[in-house]
Design a protein that fits this description.
The protein folds into 2 domains: 47 residues, Homeodomain-like (Arc Repressor Mutant, subunit A); 132 residues, Tetracycline Repressor, domain 2 (Orthogonal Bundle). The protein starts with 8 loop residues before the first helix and ends in a 14-residue tail after the last helix. Helices cover 70% and strands 0% of the residues. It is elongated, with a radius of gyration of 25 Å. The protein is mainly alpha-helical and 223 residues long. Helix 2 crosses helix 3 and helix 8 packs across helix 9. Keywords: DNA-binding, Transcription, Transcription regulation.
Length: 223
């Protein structure tokens, strides 16, 4: 027996040593807040809002429940921040791609931007789609799509006017194009085949050529 420490009765019987105490990592307030957001984002993507509890968020973050309440006030508060961040990320990415140029190039940019978001931020996309499916007329994701469609409508209206088409139809076409890309993105979230650029090329192929003029092997012309 090692000198300097008396063995407990449990150790004498089982030979086991007491477990080492769990050491919590000290973080600044902003670091802890970001950690909680990362943990909650993963749980909301995995289980949805109803399936996620404050207890589980606290457990995965290795903190007590009061810490979560202190930073966000409750599950609704942390969920709102997660959704707002994802909404802004997707909207910024989509709108920043629509910077003019040939209409086909803008279609390619928009399709690639949304699919890139799905690829890079699949947890965030799951949260947005679960909160408000693409086909829904209300909710966070529908609001984002409407904002994107408004940007596309403005660009289409200019192109329609330049080519002698009815500008009033720009809103219809904008909703159709954005909805087509968004629904395909929702499907591709789980399918992940074909590759992103190939999916984008086929979306542009359909939107640009129409079913009566589909290219046999479409490819993006960017780059």
């Amino acid at each position: 027996m090692v000198a300097g420490r008396r063995r407990s009765k449990r150790e004498q019987v089982t030979g086991a040593r007491p477990a080492a105490p769990v050491t919590r990592v000290r973080m600044t307030g902003s670091e802890r807040r970001q950690q909680l957001l990362n943990v909650a984002r993963a749980l909301f993507a995995e289980k949805g809002f109803d399936g996620t509890s404050i207890e589980e968020i606290a457990h995965r973050a290795n903190v007590s429940k009061p810490v979560v309440y202190e930073h966000f006030g409750g599950k609704e508060g942390i969920y709102a921040v997660v959704v707002d961040r994802e909404t802004q990320l997707l909207l910024d990415r989509m709108v920043s791609t629509l910077h003019g140029g040939h209409p086909r190039a803008m279609l390619e940019q928009a399709a690639t931007a949304l699919l890139s978001y799905v690829e890079d931020s699949h947890d965030g996309f799951r949260i947005l789609v679960r909160d408000s499916p693409v086909a829904s007329s209300t909710g966070t994701f529908s609001t984002v799509l409407n904002d994107i469609a408004s940007q596309v409508e403005h660009i289409l209206a200019q192109q329609f006017a330049a080519r002698g088409y009815d500008e009033k139809l720009a809103a219809l076409y904008a909703q159709a194009l954005v909805g087509m890309v968004a629904l395909t993105g929702q499907w591709w979230l789980d399918a992940r085949k074909p590759k992103r650029d190939e999916v984008a090329a086929h979306l542009v192929n359909l939107a640009w050529n129409g079913l009566s003029h589909l290219e046999h092997k479409p490819k993006l012309r960017l780059g």
